[in-house]
Amino acid sequence: MSFNWDDLRVFLEIQRTGRQSQAAKRLKYSHTTIARRLKALQDQLGLALFEQTKDGMVLSEFGQRILPFAEQMEGSASAISDLAGRINGVGKQKVRVGAPDGFGNEVLSHILPRLIASNPTLEIDLVPMPIAHKLWRRDVDIAISLDRPERGALVMRKLIDYDLRIYAGPKFFEGRERPKQRADLHAYPFIGYVEELLYTDTLDFNTILLPDLQVVYRGSTVKAQFDAVMGNIGLGVLPYYMARDTDLEPVLADKIEFQRTYWMTYLEENRHLARIQQTSEFIVEATRELSDIFKYRRK
């Protein structure tokens, strides 16, 4: 029995997205083409690969059994393409990097252009890393996250620790006394995350600080919170690397400290791909060269 590798790619993308329409977008095919290729593959195999549910398409029992083999074939095809591109010196080697907005905008957006300048065969996509982006779905090739993965066939590397403090805007304390201890924070308005959009509990700083803080503004990104703090409408917990060269004022910096860690992960099966190796090594080295900006220091 022989079948078209492109049909297996369709199978994999439907499995990752749960919908033919989403698979069509990712593969840049029409919906009709996706449906036709899936039907052709199922007709060749003589078995259904998916079951339709109200939440989308889920793998049939047979689909679950062939999934690991299809993923192995995908990994092998990627490795062949990667090797051929390096030997021939032609074609772009694309890498999609997903990162939280603070680290992505303040760090990666500044260092990744250097990687492109020194490796013209690379093509980098830098995308925000919400919870919806998954390595196993191939939404990204390299993921930067705050949660250390507990399981899975992943390569995981600690990237860097970073410090956070409570900050106030440059005019926030005009007409207000500064707090002297943690309990005093109840008297001040605060900035925080939109709770239902919080992608990790490690960022739920207001809950950690004190119960029932007066939260007057919520943003889904740290940049939105930074702008609100800068606008003097409330106190907020922000990364030092974002606040260090601004007029923001640290609050109770010696009494209330936070530290979090960025982790870098990618699929084990991609460990030997040159584009993944080059990009991941560069991110680690370039980030650690900037280690001073992540550790809190008094002005």
TrEMBL record:
- Taxonomic superkingdom: Bacteria
Q: Which GO terms describe its molecular function?
A: DNA binding; DNA-binding transcription factor activity
Domain HTH lysR-type as annotated: residue spans: 3-60
Q: Which Gene3D superfamilies match?
A: 3.40.190.290, Winged helix-like DNA-binding domain superfamily/Winged helix DNA-binding domain
Matching entries from InterPro entries are given as:
LTTR, LysR_HTH_N, LysR_subst-bd, WH-like_DNA-bd_sf, WH_DNA-bd_sf
Query: Keyword NADP, does the record have it?
Result: no
* Entry keywords, A to Z: DNA-binding, Transcription, Transcription regulation
Q: Which SUPFAM superfamilies match?
A: Periplasmic binding protein-like II (SSF53850), Winged helix' DNA-binding domain (SSF46785)
Q: Which CDD domains match?
A: PBP2_LTTR_substrate (cd05466)
| Similarity-based family | Belongs to the LysR transcriptional regulatory family.
- Name-wise, this protein is DNA-binding transcriptional LysR family regulator
